[in-house]
Amino acid sequence: MHMSSETVRPSSPRNPLRRLSVELILIVLAKIALLSLIGWYLSAHYPRADTRPAAVERLLAPPPTSKPESKP
Amino acid sequence: MMIDPEVVTLSRLQFALTALYHFLFVPLTLGLVWILAIMESVYVMTGREVWKRMVQFWGVLFGINFAMGVATGVTMEFQFGMNWAYYSHYVGDVFGTPLAIEGLMAFFLEGTLVGVFFMGWKRLSRHAHLLVTWFLALGTNLSALWILIANAWMQNPVGAKFNPQTMRMEVTSFTDVLFNPVAQAKFVHTVSAGYVIGSMFVLSISAWYLLRGRNVDFARRSMTVAASFGLAAALSVVVLGDESGYAVSENQKMKMAAIEAMWETEPPPASFTLFGIPDVQNRTTHYAMHIPWVMGLIGTRSVDKPILGINNLVEDTKGKIGNGIQAYDAMLTLRKDPNDAQAKSTLAQYDSDMGYALLLKRYVADPRQATPSDIDKAAASTIPNVPVLFWSFRIMVACGFYFIALFAYSFWLASKRRLDNNRWYLRLALYSLPLPWVSTELGWIVAEYGRQPWAIEGILPTALGVSSVSAGQVWTSLSGFVLFYSLLAIVDAVLMLKYARKGPDELGIWPVREITPPLESTVSAH
Q1: How far apart are alpha carbons B293 and B290 in whole angstroms?
Q2: Could you give the angle at the alpha carbon of B446 between the alpha carbons of B404 and B186, nearest 5°?
Q3: Inter-chain contact A51–B420, Cβ cutoff 8 Å?
Q4: What values do phi and psi take at B436, rounded to 5?
Q5: Residue B282 to residues B285, B290, B307: CA-CA distances in angstroms?
Q6: Which UniProt keywords apply (chain A) (predicted)?
Q7: Chain A, nearest residue to B421 by Cα
């Protein structure tokens, strides 16, 4: 297949790759800021999850009121 | 402590959404980086500038994907503490280790080298830059390896044991965790799926240039690399997927039976259900089309071993629940008296089934008080969503075979130097762009949705892994993530489209712009 070709130099005075680099850096910074904002909102407005080992024990082991002998 | 089903559902939804979103970026990084390494190797070996320009252009799109994807996975790690606190406590000693190694070893390597890759063109020698690119590729793939080791432990929890004194799982053999056969099968299957995505990305965008007669020489070479690498990757993903299927049939029999909608155990060798409509209510599959022997060969690598059906597995589970209750009772005895010899012996005998007793927690506070009806309900709860698994798996597999055909044809066209004069092929390559993403996301749905109701297979039910948070709290974080990720997705799509449309010519990377009559207008003129 025959192809004609000619040399074309990019005419834009601004370097698009430099602009892209700046955009990407700003996006990453914005992401970190937004994620921090979500994290801060949750920690500031809600009680913390009970992650103590004792809480896990309560979750997995039966509550104090249960009576094994009541099994039918 | 009561389990709030809404918190469980929302926490699962949040994790699933963030994981599926994160995995839009990961596989493209995994695949594209090897294509960059291949192109740069050709540049260093031949010294031809065109190959360097190809690395630079595809590197721009790699950079956009990397920047948009980075930190989207961090939210999942946050969720382990935020929504899955009990999960983290119960198995964090085992599960956290590969995650920590991933961050310290692979991600730091990857994060550092990605900067050197972009900034090092003028500062490093050709060979040094090539070394950076190869190590970048290695870093991204090592990152995937550690994550998949962690994930595989959830599917096949080896190398760890429950400690009744600390009430959590503890590592007994890190070597077993590391060389978990499920991890090996998952790693090679997942990264090869990423290679297919990277190849399709290059193939489709190059096809778009050829359709418009832009960057013709550049696009033709790119397509040749993508076709070769893509064919090898597509063949690998199917072959290694078969290995992954074998691992599932060994360790997660219920998941395998659900994928197959196999309600009853068939005499060996089991047939493969090519098509059918699973009926969950009546536990049957309507209009099933079977291929004899295939499932038996895939699942057991033999012709004389059966693959258990769902109904049989539910009956087996009832027995395991009975064993689990004994282990649970022994665990509570040991909590009071760590020297009780009888309890120690019972726990040692049945501790692998203790998780099955915990399934009863959804129905009764103390598993030891479970009625036969509770046990029936808990056993039935081990059946995952059969229609979702059945169809997700089949669409994924169909996509896999389509990729082999497309890349094989692309490879043939490339070898005949006829890539750029076939309009329907170029359009097909262009419109196939989303398919590898669809198939990999479906693959993850099969893997993770198919693991339910377990967070850790046979050890910890998902419902017991959640934090003591309110549904409102999970709604808030879920809404925040959805809004944030939607915004990010729009920005990503805009940037990718913008710079792919610009192409290497308008970005000043490709110094010679061929002016060729656009193929589409040429064809339509006839």
Answers
A1: 9
A2: 65
A3: no
A4: -65, -30
A5: 9, 19, 20
A6: Membrane, Transmembrane, Transmembrane helix
A7: A1
Query: From CA B393, how far away is CA B405, in angstroms rounded?
Result: 19
Looking at residue B272, the DSSP 8-state letter turns out to be E
Q: Which residues of B454-472 are buried (b: 16+ CB within 10 A; e: fewer)?
A: bbbbbbbbbbbbbbbbebe
Model pLDDT for residues B377-405, shown as the tens digit of each residue: 999 999 999 999 999 999 999 999 999 99
CA–CA separation, B306 vs B296, rounded Å?
7
Minimal Cβ distance to B1: which of A8, A34, A59 = A59
Query: Given an 8 Å threshold on Cβ–Cβ distance, is A46 in contact with B469?
Result: yes
- pLDDT on residue A6: 39
Q: How would DSSP label each residue in B443-457?
A: HHHHHHHTTTTEEET
Q: Is B200 helix (H, G, I), strand (E, B) or coil?
A: helix
| Residue type present at position B207 | A
In degrees and rounded to multiples of 5, residue B416 shows phi and psi of: -90, 0
**Amino acid in position B349:** Q
3-state SS assignment for residue B277: strand
Predicted ipTM?
0.73
Interface test with A, best of B333, B485, B513 (most A CBs within 10 A): B513
Per-residue pLDDT reduced to its tens digit, B131-159: 999 999 999 999 999 999 999 999 999 99
Q: Partners of A6 in the beta sheet?
A: B513
Phi, psi dihedrals of residue B330, rounded to the nearest 5°: -65, -40
Rounded to an integer, what distance in angstroms lies between the CA atom of residue B13 and that of residue B444? Answer: 14
Could you tell me if B60 and A15 are in contact, meaning their C-beta atoms sit under 8 angstroms apart?
no
Other Cβ atoms less than 10 A from the Cβ of B483: the count is 12
Mean pLDDT of B392-420: 95
Q: Note whether B163 and B331 are within 8 A (CB).
A: no
Placement of tokens 């497309």 in the chain: B406
Would you tell me which residues 422-461 of chain B have a C-beta closer than 8 angstroms to some C-beta of chain A?
A: none
Domain boundaries, chain B: 25-255+383-518
For B10-34, how does the pLDDT look when each residue is reduced to its tens digit (9 = 90+)? Answer: 999 999 999 999 999 999 999 999 9
Q: How many residues does chain B have?
A: 526
Q: List residues bridging with A5 in a β-sheet.
A: B514
